[in-house]
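Quick review question:
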């Protein structure tokens, strides 16, 4: 009888456990770790359909995204669902790999009982990164209590055009401020890993700098500006906060979607910046390479281009990545590329303790949600984000008076007038030079 597999031994280094598990996996099991899906794939009338799990995910699965959809009415329901689906993947699949459960929790756990916080642009207006870290620690604690272990946050795009509709999700236009707030968010959310939530910083790269402020429009950014301005917050997130993953911009730069562009997703991100975490797609980004950008003849070919370009997971549904075993057997994709991606996905799952702690305490879920102290933190952030530009005697308003605020939005000043990010040189929070290995 075979001894316990080495990958199940928590005393071994993560890298050793990953390699042992990777060596045991079939092509189908590897590809499954790169795929996403949505709660309706296994939820029927509010209950987990275990037979649907067996039918759809016999080789395991990478992640379920938008996981908060399972708990819009009751956090205890989400906790029960977590345990039931993890029980299937841990106890019924051949290798017992837990599934990642991720959601959009930029300003709070977006399910029943979660504490609601102000938008990221409000956090930026406080000029206090420590408040961001306090907030994300709360969000992470509430998310983990119901089983969510991956956060598709923070948004650390440098947003300089207020016409872009997602500016409120960002920390604004200054690369230094964006970096400081992003690092604080990630440190609070990821905590000590075992009890934290893995962050997916987004959107790498230049997502907010679109033509005309239109979402998904082409971006016109030169190499130097792309690196020094837009990559700076992501490099800070990696080097200072060890962010676990990044999400690729599904827009195009130089006519190529970022996720299929090895100059950005491999040369810049991996070689120049030294990032070794996961690079995931945005929602339906791989499909868009086929039916929107038309750089592929089929959805399946788009998945192959994405993997070669640098993407390592496909969300929300991994329909093209699920076909990668066929591409490997046909010689169109090198299995080493598949292994590289799976290795990074498994590393995150091991580092965040999913193999040792896949289940949650269902009886404690409701009590772990919002309380007066958390609500007071939310109010404090809102109050400190208010900006009074000038009072010419109009305030305080007399009873019954109303005011119309008309005009262009105010631009924030540079933080303390400092420019701490110099050409080609990354600097940390204390202004100390960091390592940059070259230019794009």
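Suggested answer, residue by residue:
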């Amino acid at each position: 009888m075979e001894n316990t597999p080495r990958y199940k031994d928590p005393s071994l280094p993560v890298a050793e456990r990953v390699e042992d598990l990777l060596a045991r996996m079939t092509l189908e099991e590897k590809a499954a770790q790169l795929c996403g899906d949505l709660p309706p794939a296994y939820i029927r009338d509010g209950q987990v359909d275990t037979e649907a799990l067996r039918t759809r995910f016999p080789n395991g699965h990478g992640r379920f995204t938008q996981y908060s959809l399972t708990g819009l009415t009751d956090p205890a329901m989400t906790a029960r669902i977590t345990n039931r689906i993890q029980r299937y993947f841990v106890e019924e699949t051949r290798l017992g790999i837990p599934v990642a459960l991720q959601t959009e929790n930029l300003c709070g756990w977006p399910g029943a009982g979660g504490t609601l916080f102000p938008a990221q642009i409000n956090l930026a207006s406080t000029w206090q990164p420590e408040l961001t870290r306090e907030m994300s620690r709360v969000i992470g604690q509430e998310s983990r209590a119901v089983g969510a272990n991956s956060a598709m946050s923070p948004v650390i795009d440098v947003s300089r055009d207020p016409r872009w509709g997602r500016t409120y999700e960002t920390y604004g236009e200054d690369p230094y401020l964006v970096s400081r707030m992003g690092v604080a968010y990630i440190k609070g959310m990821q905590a000590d890993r075992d009890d934290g939530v893995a962050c997916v910083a987004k959107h790498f790269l230049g997502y907010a700098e679109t033509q005309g402020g239109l979402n998904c429009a082409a971006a016109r950014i030169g190499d130097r500006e792309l690196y020094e301005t837009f990559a700076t917050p992501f490099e800070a997130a990696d080097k200072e906060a060890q962010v676990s993953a990044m999400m690729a911009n599904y827009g195009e730069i130089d006519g190529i979607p970022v996720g299929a562009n090895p100059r950005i997703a491999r040369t810049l991100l991996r070689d120049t910046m030294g990032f070794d975490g996961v690079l995931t797609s945005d929602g339906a980004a791989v499909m868009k390479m086929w039916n929107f950008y038309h750089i592929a003849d089929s959805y399946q070919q788009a998945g192959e281009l994405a993997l070669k370009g640098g993407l390592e997971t496909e969300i929300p549904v991994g329909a093209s990545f699920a076909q990668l075993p066929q591409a490997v057997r046909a010689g169109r994709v090198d299995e080493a590329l598949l292994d590289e991606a799976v290795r990074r996905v498994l590393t995150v799952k091991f580092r965040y303790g999913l193999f040792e702690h896949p289940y949650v305490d269902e009886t404690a879920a409701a009590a772990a949600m919002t309380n007066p102290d958390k609500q007071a933190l939310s109010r404090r952030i809102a109050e400190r984000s208010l900006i009074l530009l000038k009072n010419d005697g109009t305030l305080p308003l007399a009873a019954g008076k109303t005011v119309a605020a008309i005009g262009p939005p105010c631009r924030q000043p540079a933080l303390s007038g400092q420019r701490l990010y110099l050409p080609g040189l990354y600097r940390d929070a204390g202004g100390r030079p960091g390592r940059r290995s070259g230019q794009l």
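Why it works: Confidence is low (pLDDT under 50) at residues 411-427, 435-440. The domain at 6-368 is CATH 3.20.20.300 (TIM Barrel).
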